Amino acid sequence: MKVRLAPVRLRLSLRITLAFAVGALVLSAAVAVGSYLFTARFLVGEQERTTLHQTYVNAAIARARLSGPAVDVPAILDALTVASSTNKIIYNDGRWYSSSLLVSRDALPTDLREATLGGSTVRTWRQNGSSSQIVVGVPLPGVKSAYFQVFDEAPLRHTLDVLRNVLLAAASATTAAGVGLGWWASRRLTAPLRAVAAAAERLASGNLETHLPHEHDRELGQLVDSFNAMVAALRARIQRDARFAADVSHELRSPLTTLSTSLSVLRRRRSELSPPGQDALDLLVTELARFERLVEDLLEISRADAAGGIADPEPVRISELVLNVLEQPEYGDVAANIDSSAFDAVVAGDKLRLQQVLRNLLENADTYAGGATEISATASNGCVLLCVDDAGPGVPPAERERIFDRFTRGRSAARRGGRGGTGLGLALVAEHVRAHGGRIWVTDAPSGGARFAFELPQAAR
User: Fold this and answer.
1) Under 8 Å between Cβ of 361 and 429
2) I want to staple 349 with a disulfide (CB 3.0 to 4.6 A). Which of 44, 60, 69, 436 is the partner?
3) CB-CB contact of 377 with 385 (8 Å)
4) Residues 210, 215, 220, 223: is their CA dihedral positive or negative?
5) What are residue 88's DSSP bridge partners?
């Protein structure tokens, strides 16, 4: 079985920085290598030309002096001008004379020596340990002599080494400058993207007043203007939908009040109706109650949409929140399990909306899951976790996300005959939790039922 690893995608800013770094490295390396090769070739060629010219001049001087009446070869060697790294050798009348004890006849290649003594001017390179040498031999006809000059390239090699180190340092500095420039450019180019991401996150959390500041750059300005236009359109759409839901709910209240009053009259005279009429009346009362609850939920969720986040958050102590909700007589059988870490925990938010979150979860458990069994609270890592466990059959994994959508009721609710629900209770819970900067989910409770858990950021005590 072959396992394919997913390719690692680097962040855009890192990719831009790496692109600048690689570009600077390639460019500086190409310039450094080209400069080094060109300079080395030029210096070596120049050294060869200088050595040849100096050898020919010294050979002419040596020939002139060797043709004189009193020949003093060591004095002639001392009189010849050469560089400090150059040694001189003269062959005269079967004897060899050298300007250095370290360089003698044996330092001359055999083929060069023989060719020079045979009357040919010869130039060659020879390896001497870790360095190279230029050896030039010039025959001196008429005086039966020959002049040899040995140039050691160690100074030249030292110069090339210094040049190489300077070019490496320059290439490294250029690469570092490329990295710095790439980092600056990536930060500059991705700054609007980061701003858009942060604004989108605020927008997703319910802050509909989010907008981006004006950008003077034309290309980036188009992105900013498009985002602000999108936010404005989204805000107008949400406000329009919320206003529509509120208007519809408000308009439905008057006929609902009339229907409720009429049904109250009929219920007082229920005994005068026939059995089928009594059943129809009971069904009508149940559906009217459900319809009234639907209208109230629509009004509430439209207000939540219009409000977005929490305008004026206040400190809410978690232990007091849970105990205040459980003071209601209908929740007398629900246990409170508040961990010591959460007893003094405080969140910043709207106390009434948080109470409604717990009440909706408890009512949902009563309607669909045989009632709630426990409310627990713990605190860790700067967050407070509240859980509501019920005695029902649990929520199938396939439904655990979509039950928080509006007008959604799970299959288990339908099987249990939960006709009292509107499909908006859990949606309203999710809206309130998100408005407080938290998240909500459902999982299996340890007792076997469902556990509705929501997490809120903890505020300073």
Assistant:
1) yes
2) 436
3) yes
4) positive
5) 149
- Quote the percentage of the chain above a pLDDT of 70: 85
Q: Residue 453 is encoded by which pair of tokens? A: 């858990």
Residue 452 C-alpha from the chain's centroid: 33
Matching residue, tokens 């020879």: 126
Which pLDDT belongs to residue 377?
93
245-275 pLDDT per residue, tens: 667 666 766 777 777 777 777 778 777 778 8
Each domain of the chain, given as residue ranges in start order, spans: 12-160, 218-304, 311-457
**Is pLDDT above 70 for 299?**
no
Say yes or no to pLDDT of 418 above 50.
no
What pLDDT is stored for residue 274 in this prediction? 81
123 φ, ψ to 5°?
-130, 135
Residue found by looking up tokens 């045989």 in the block: 370
> What would the DSSP string read from start to end of 311-368?
SS-EEEEHHHHHHHHHTSGGGTT-EEEE-HHHHT-EEEE-HHHHHHHHHHHHHHHHHH
Query: Spelled out in words, what is the top-level CATH class assigned to the domain 311-457?
Result: alpha beta
pLDDT tier for residue 389 given thresholds of 50, 70 and 90: very high
In the predicted model, what is the mean pLDDT of residues 164-179? 88
- Determine the Cα–Cα distance for residues 145 and 119; give it in Å rounded to an integer: 10
pLDDT tens string 345-383: 999 888 888 988 998 899 888 888 888 999 999 999 889
> How many Cβ atoms sit within 10 Å of the Cβ of residue 460?
6
Please state, in angstroms and rounded to a whole number, the distance separating the CA atoms of residues 267 and 281. Answer: 8
In the chain, what is the straight-line distance between the N-terminal and C-terminal CA atoms, in Å?
A: 55
Which pLDDT does position 277 carry in this prediction? 80
Q: How many CB atoms lie within 10 A of CB 32?
A: 20
Topology of the domain comprising 12-160? Beta-Lactamase (3.30.450)
Nearest to 341 by CA among 287, 382, 374: 382
Same topology for domains 218-304 and 311-457, yes or no? no
Distance of alpha carbon 195 from alpha carbon 201, whole angstroms: 10
DSSP state of 381: T
CATH number for region 218-304? 1.10.287.130
